[in-house]
Amino acid sequence: MAQPAWQDPEPLALDTAPVPEYGSGSLADLLPTLAAGLEVPGFTAAIPELTPADRNCVFLIDGLGWEQIKAYPDEAPFLHSLLPTSRGGTGRPLTAGFPSTTATSLASVGTGLPPGEHGLPGYTARNPRTGELMNQLRWKPWTEPKAWQPYPTVFQLADAAGVHTAQVSAPMFEQTPLTKIALSGGSFLGRLSGEDRMDVAAQRLAAGDRSLVYTYYSEVDGKGHRFGTDSDAWRGQLMYVDGLARRLAEQLPPRSALYITADHGMIDIPFDEQSRIDFDEDWELSAGVALLGGEGRARHVYAVPGAQADVLAVWREVLGEQFWIASRDEAIAAGWFGPTIDERVYGRIGDVVAAAHDDVIITASVNEPHESAMAGVHGSLTPVEQLVPLLEVRS
After folding, report:
1. How confident is the model at residue 10 (pLDDT cuts 50, 70, 90)?
2. What is the pTM of this model?
C-alpha cells in the first residue's frame, strides 16, 4: 500500500543493516585462522575455507576494498585476476567490521578480536574516564595503550609459540601506540619504499619453517581521501600497488600462502549540501549533543546527561531515511560491534550511532576541517566500504 504524501517517511529499519561476519568471515578472523594452521595454542580456524600453510604472509592495502578491485580491472590486472581465489577459492570477500575504518580494522586484524572486545570502536571515541574524545588513529590525547587495549596480539602469541614472526612497514609506524597494541610481536622491519617492503617480506617469510609475516601499504587510502577513487592520482596508486602485489607473489618461498586484503573500501561523496550535512551548522542535530565522535559515515553521538532519548528521536527524524540510526544498546544488540562488548568498551560507543546508508556524510566543518574536506570516505556498513578482499597466492 502506498504511503500517503502527507505522512512522515519511516526511518530505515535496523534489521536492514548488513552485519559483519564476525566469527566466520571478518578481518578479525584472519590471523586466528592462520595461527591455528601454524598450531599456535589457543586458536581455532574461524574461516573454514582457508587451507593451512607453513609460511603465511598478509599484505594489507589500506583503503582498497573488494568493489574497487572489481571496478578497475585495467589498473589492477594482477589483483583482479586473483578475485576467484578470494576466501579460499570461493571468490567471496571478507567483511571489515564496524566501523569500517583503519584504527578499528587494524586492531581487529592484529588482535583477532572484534571491536566490542579490542575496544577501538571508531576513528574517534569518548574516553569514559576523562570525558574527552580520543583519536584512536593518532592516539590523541595520550592514553596508556595497554589500558586502552589490554589483549595480546596474535603476533605476540605466535612468536611465543616459536613461529617466525615479523611486520614490514614504513619506519614511522614502528613506535606508534596503534602498532604497539595491535600489530606488535616478533620483529619490526621499517622500509621506506614499497618495493623494499615486498622484498623484505619475502625474505622474512623464508627465514622460518613456520612463518607469519605482515606488510602494509597506505597510499591508496591517502590518495582516495584527498582526490577520490575516480581520480588519476588514485588510479596511479592502484597501478603501483598492483605491481607491488605481483612482486611479492613472484618471490614467495616454498610452502607459502600470500593473503592480500584491506582494512576497508571507500566511497566518493559529492561536495554539495545535500550530500554533506554539516553538524557544526545544524542546530537541530547539535541540540543536546555533548560530543560528536566517529567520522562522517559512522558517527558516535554522545548526548548531554538526560538528553539521550531526545537526541535519538531527533537524529532519527532528520536523518533516518539516509542513515541507520541506533541507540547504543540497539547497535550492540544488532551485533554491529561484534557478538560481545567488554565492560570497558561500553561507554566508548555513542549514545546514538549513525551509519550511512545513502551517499551522504555528516561533516563538522569547524571541529573537523581536514576530515570534512575529504573527497573519498568510509566507515559504514555498505558493501563498498565493508567488503574487503582475501586474495590468495600459493607456492
Report:
1. confident
2. 0.96
